[in-house]
Specification:
With about 130 residues, this protein is of the alpha/beta class. The protein contains two helices and eight strands. The strands form two sheets. A four-stranded mixed sheet has the order 1-4-3-2, with helices on one face.
Length: about 130
């Protein structure tokens, strides 16, 4: 059976240079290469392709559909503090959720939203459900 080996998110952005700068300087992504109208970036296992689409509907106009990724991390509070230090705005504070994840969300300058979460481990006095 075939295996899925990588996920790459593809986003339309109105200003490629501005978006690349945000992902590199504020979220810590590495730019791998650019071709006309496209930029390919990553941070750890999170792969991202940005396509310049100046006439596309802005992500913030799509409401709830502007969420495009849920990223599982191993130190969610550290990542939250890193993003605050780097000046990321539109950040929801970390919170423990009933689905046993501690998570926070950000909004990019283009209006896309990303949630970052870490699994909450069971305490020894809890029985797994």
């Amino acid at each position: 059976m075939s295996q899925l080996t990588r996920v790459q998110c593809v986003l339309a952005v109105p200003d490629l240079e501005k978006s690349v700068s945000f992902y590199r300087n504020q979220l810590g992504f590495t730019l791998h290469f650019e071709v006309e109208g496209w930029a390919f970036l990553s941070r750890d296992q999170f792969r991202l392709m940005l396509g310049e689409c100046p006439d596309a509907m802005p992500a913030y106009e799509t409401g709830d559909h502007s969420y495009f990724a849920y990223v599982t991390v191993d130190a969610v509070d550290d990542l939250y503090l890193e993003f605050l230090k780097n000046g990321v705005s539109g950040v929801q504070d970390p919170a423990d959720k009933p689905w046993r994840m501690r998570e926070f969300a950000i909004r990019t300058p283009d209006g896309h939203r990303i949630t970052f979460g870490q699994e909450i481990k069971s305490r020894p006095d809890e029985t797994p459900s």
